[in-house]
Amino acid sequence: MDAQAGSLSLRQYGASPGSHSHAHFQILLGLTGALELEVEGRGLRVGPGGGCVIAPGDRHDFASARGSLCLVLDSSHPDWARSAGHATLPAPALPLARYLATALQQGHPLAQAHGPALLREAWLAADNPHAPAAVATSAARRRPIDWVALEQWAAQQWHTPLTVADLAQRVHLSASQFAVRCRDDRGVSAMVWLRGLRLEQARLLRDNGLAVAEVARRTGYRSPSALTAALRRAGR
């Protein structure tokens, strides 16, 4: 067996663990559910019958709101560089991927021994401009953040010490990726956006006649004077 071929595994994905990278290629093949990824800022979606190749060193984050099962190949074989960044599983590789997933579940040793090389051969042989595509799974844009829903959720959380990391987890991104998306989508840093949300909630409560001390308590300001100073700086 080719020592560079790598190893196969079945992996269940859920909430985002934060962005990371590998020293090897990582090939993902969707079996069930939908896996949302951001690879170097590019949004991808791997559903059943779809796949993608992540290059060594590419920072990526993933999340699956309802759970996703994937066949994963970790490989250092240089041939995978030809498909790095692609997000479509070539049709000839699909039945092989499904067979290998079943074989792994049943503990067949030949699947691990020969599966990585066979999968590489099936994938790369078809990976050319004239090859038939399987299920298109890439998104031209990064997966969208529902900013309105996020603001509504945050409005119910101000009694807790809400952080940027909490907002990021809510939308299944790492804190660093959320910070990038916030600057791109909202035009400000994540911390500035968070402070703006908190201040807007405080202003609404004050406009409804609530006492400064109670507003400060409900919106997480450390004291009424801190809230008063924030409102003054904002010209309110």
Q: Count of helices?
A: 8
- The proportion of residues in beta strands is 15-25%
Q: How many strands in all?
A: 7
Mean pLDDT equals 81
Second CATH tier, the architecture of the largest domain? Sandwich
**First CA to last CA: what distance?**
70 Å
CATH superfamily of the largest domain: Jelly Rolls
Features:
three-stranded antiparallel β-sheet, 236 residues, 8 helices, Arc Repressor Mutant, subunit A, Jelly Rolls, 2 domains, single chain, alpha+beta
Helix/strand layout:
Layout lengths: L6 E7 L11 E8 L2 E5 L2 E5 L4 E4 L5 E4 L4 E8 L17 H13 L3 H18 L20 H9 L8 H7 L4 H12 L3 H18 L4 H8 L4 H10 L3
Antiparallel strand pairs: 1-7, 2-5, 2-7, 3-4, 3-6
Structure characterization notes:
The protein has 236 residues and is an alpha+beta fold. It has 2 domains: 7-126, Sandwich (Jelly Rolls); 147-233, Arc Repressor Mutant, subunit A. Helices cover 40% and strands 17% of the residues. The strands form 2 sheets. It has a 4-stranded antiparallel sheet. The protein starts with 6 loop residues before the first strand and ends with a helix. The relative contact order is 0.14.
In short, what is this structure?
The chain contains eight helices and seven strands; from the N terminus they run E-E-E-E-E-E-E-H-H-H-H-H-H-H-H. It has helices spanning 93-105, 109-126, 147-155, 164-170, 175-186, 190-207, 212-219, 224-233; strands at residues 7-13, 25-32, 35-39, 42-46, 51-54, 60-63, 68-75. The strands form two sheets. Strands 1-7-2-5 form a four-stranded antiparallel β-sheet. It has a three-stranded antiparallel β-sheet with strand order 4-3-6, with no helix packed on it.
